[in-house]
Amino acid sequence: MYRALTVASSLLAVAQGQLVGTQQTETHPGMTWQQCTAKGSCTSKNGKVVIDANWRWLHTKTGLVTGQDISYTNCYTDNNWNTTLCTDNKACAANCAVDGADYTGTYGITASGNSLQLKFVTKGSYSTNIGSRTYMMRDDSTYEMFKLGPNVEFTFDVDLSNLPCGLNGALYFVSMDSDGGLKKYSTNKAGAKYGTGYCDAQCPRDLKFINGEGNVEGWTPSSNDPNAGVGGHGSCCAEMDIWEANSVSTAVTPHACSTIGQTRCDGDSCGGTYSGDRYAGLCDPDGCDYNSYRMGDKTFYGKGKTVDTSKKFTVVTQFIGTGDALEIKRFYVQGGKTIANSNSQIAGVDGNSITTKFCDQQKQVFGDTYTFKDKGGMANMAKALEGGMVLVMSLWDDHYSNMLWLDSTYPTDKDASVPGIGRGECETTSGVPADVESKSASASVTYSNIKLGPLNSTFG
């Protein structure tokens, strides 16, 4: 819901570059997933993983040669742009190149077979990296486009046993362009190969490049994140949060947008987390979420609970029907047992799946702003799902609200006993990024065994 991802750096700088550097070869880690046609009938696909361009070193397109050494000038350092190289958005795209990634050494990303591990803090030779955002690729220049309906299920295994309060191991889908905007924007020379083109329902304005141009004009460095800021543009698109979770709480949340595909927005009219008016944009920033704890069942999810987060388990999400009648249904599998999602224990809200009726009831009972319906609700979500979406696998901490919206009492000035306010057992003082980054540096999440197929084909 309130996504903000950052990377700390010293000698390396980070930005979504549009030209391509040559200092580090870009070799995408391989990761397999399975396409199923019926239960027990699945075919392995050889996917690849790419890290988002926002994490990469951004430097001058040509370096200064001294003897046998070549030195480059950073286009972006800490949370500031180089004002000589990046006098405006177009100049930045013309002067700056994004480079390849050392996935394991710099970013703590390790792919093996059908699994992907993301480490939270990685101390490399030149930098300290915080979190990551990665995408599944079909090949070295194209994102895999997953079609999630109608009547499709998506399944994966997750180990988040060492993700404490304040962290979010998120696996979700967004309506990005399959080539990262390479064809649409002539100044984008990097494309999906270098992780460009991100968008989501928060219309994020912390992206360094959008639509093949820099985001330097109007850039304001963050007051509490030494590596990030907010620019004059954002990047919007529909988002299906299959999984936002740590070992304490989890939520599944569709976010509808009035315009489904990647669209650039301007300033506070973007809405979302990064803007003064949260509800001003094309997209629904809150979504219609199902968090078992928030829906009244405090015994269902967590360490030692029905779904025991101290051990690996399987997450199954079904997309049943289409249009306004779309139903998003959740199961878990652990220890050989299939576990139905917990039922709502909130008076006036029925069921254990996300439907138009559930959203109508929940928003009314909780008194939440209902932008999900305003932006097209289940009908627009179904269009996005069926049109094909890019799979995102990430790990992040939250410089805007300390992840309290996921795992604590939120808003913090409300009584946790009021329906909809209690979202998890974490203290309201938890999740401060500086604390999480120092005390939980060794945290990690592992996603594995991804499957896509018709209903009831990927589990059981």
From TrEMBL:
Q: Which SUPFAM superfamilies match?
A: Concanavalin A-like lectins/glucanases
Q: Which reaction does it catalyse?
A: Hydrolysis of (1->4)-beta-D-glucosidic linkages in cellulose and cellotetraose, releasing cellobiose from the non-reducing ends of the chains
- What does the record give as EC number? 3.2.1.-
Signal peptide start-end: 1-17
Q: What GO biological process terms does the UniProt entry carry, in alphabetical order?
A: cellulose catabolic process
Query: One matching Pfam family, short form?
Result: Glyco_hydro_7
Catalytic EC class: hydrolase
Q: Which domain of life is it from?
A: Eukaryota
Q: What Gene3D superfamilies does the annotation carry?
A: Glycoside hydrolase, family 7, domain
Q: Which UniProt keywords apply?
A: Carbohydrate metabolism, Cellulose degradation, Glycosidase, Hydrolase, Polysaccharide degradation, Signal
**Presence of the UniProt keyword Hydrolase in the record:** yes
CDD domains from the entry? GH7_CBH_EG
In its UniProt record, a GO molecular function of this protein is: cellulose 1,4-beta-cellobiosidase activity
Concerning PANTHER family, the annotation shows: 1,4-BETA-D-GLUCAN CELLOBIOHYDROLASE B, GLYCOSIDE HYDROLASE FAMILY 7 PROTEIN
Family of this protein: Belongs to the glycosyl hydrolase 7 (cellulase C) family.
| UniProt protein name | Glucanase
Q: Could you tell me which species this protein originates from?
A: Lophiotrema nucula
Lineage, uppermost ranks: Eukaryota, Fungi, Dikarya, Ascomycota, Pezizomycotina
